[in-house]
């Protein structure tokens, strides 16, 4: 595990953007696993900047997002689909038919989850999975519990997750109760993992994830088993390590 701490968000984001840029330059048809949340926004901004400077092209890349809320209307501003368009896809040359996100609008959510696994299987191993961590140790929307799932599945979001994400919605009631998330299988099989975490409020869970026992009660603790894990932190998140 390679853990790096940065003084500013800009430096952290620049490091992550360079990491991804270098990977895509070395392998133009790379398969990227992407994440949402507040932390990746700076990374995507800098990726767009690198694309505009002509330093990288995403024309042959395939991208798979970790997760999507279930039941939001088409074009809902808080869907991860809308997030990805706003922060990344509208600013780079990745063809949209190569940008996959679980279909949260599907009536048959489990069918949508199975479709997503088929697409993941066809694409083969992810070259890189970008990850954040939830306050309860979730990765994607793989929530803590008695068990974890390898495959894409429908998940009932924990109340703490809904509360944490309610800042993006008008009210807690509007936060979806369910989501579709990639399972831990493709994440753990990815060639490289890039975990990005910011803020003192994540320091305790990060310590549990990186230094605590490996347990389904903290899904991010599984990442300790990955042979190519890079962790990028700000000083707040690194406080308890
Ligand atoms: N489903 C996403 C996770 O994939 C992400 O890791 C988490 C924390 O993101 P952040 O702290 O960057 O906002 O937010 C959401 O719950």
From TrEMBL:
InterPro entries attached to this UniProt entry: Glc/Gal-6P_isomerase (IPR006148), Glucosamine6P_isomerase (IPR004547), Glucosamine6P_isomerase_CS (IPR018321), NagB/RpiA_transferase-like (IPR037171)
Pathway(s): Amino-sugar metabolism; N-acetylneuraminate degradation; D-fructose 6-phosphate from N-acetylneuraminate: step 5/5
GO cellular component: cytoplasm
Keyword Hydrolase in annotation: yes
PROSITE patterns: GLC_GALNAC_ISOMERASE (PS01161)
Residues at the catalytic site: 67 (proton acceptor), 136 (for ring-opening step), 138 (proton acceptor), 143 (for ring-opening step)
Molecular functions (GO terms): glucosamine-6-phosphate deaminase activity; identical protein binding
Biological process, per Gene Ontology: carbohydrate metabolic process; glucosamine catabolic process; N-acetylglucosamine catabolic process; N-acetylneuraminate catabolic process
Positions of the Glucosamine/galactosamine-6-phosphate isomerase domain: 10-224
Substrates-to-products reaction catalysed: alpha-D-glucosamine 6-phosphate + H2O = beta-D-fructose 6-phosphate + NH4(+)
EC numbers, comma separated: 3.5.99.6
Top-level taxon: Bacteria
UniProt entry keywords in alphabetical sequence: Carbohydrate metabolism, Hydrolase
Pfam families: Glucosamine_iso
Family that this chain belongs to: Belongs to the glucosamine/galactosamine-6-phosphate isomerase family. NagB subfamily.
Role summary: Catalyzes the reversible isomerization-deamination of glucosamine 6-phosphate (GlcN6P) to form fructose 6-phosphate (Fru6P) and ammonium ion.
PANTHER family membership: GLUCOSAMINE-6-PHOSPHATE ISOMERASE
NCBIfam families the record matches: nagB
Record-given protein name: Glucosamine-6-phosphate deaminase
Organism: Paenibacillus radicis
């Amino acid at each position: 595990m390679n853990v790096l701490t940065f003084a500013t968000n800009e430096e952290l984001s620049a490091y992550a953007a360079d990491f991804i840029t270098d990977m895509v330059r070395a392998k133009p048809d790379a398969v990227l696993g992407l994440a949402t949340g507040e932390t990746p926004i700076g990374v995507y901004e800098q990726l767009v900047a690198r694309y505009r400077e002509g330093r990288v092209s995403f024309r042959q890349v395939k991208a798979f997002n970790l997760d999507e809320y279930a039941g939001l209307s088409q074009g809902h501003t808080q869907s991860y689909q809308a997030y990805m368009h706003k922060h990344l896809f509208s600013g780079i040359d990745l063809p949209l038919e190569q940008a996959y996100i679980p279909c949260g609008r599907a009536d048959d959510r489990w069918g949508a989850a199975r479709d997503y696994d088929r697409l993941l299987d066809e694409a083969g191993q992810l070259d890189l999975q970008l990850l954040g961590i939830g306050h309860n140790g979730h990765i994607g929307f793989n929530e803590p519990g008695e068990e974890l799932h390898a495959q894409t599945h429908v998940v009932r979001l924990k109340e703490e997750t809904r509360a944490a994400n309610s800042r993006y919605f008008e009210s807690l009631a509007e936060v979806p109760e369910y989501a579709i998330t990639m399972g831990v299988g493709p994440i753990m099989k990815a060639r490289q993992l890039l975990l990005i975490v910011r803020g003192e409020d994540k320091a305790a869970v990060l310590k549990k994830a990186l230094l605590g026992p490996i347990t389904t009660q903290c899904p991010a603790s599984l990442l300790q088993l990955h042979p190519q894990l890079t962790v990028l932190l700000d000083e707040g998140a690194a406080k308890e390590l």
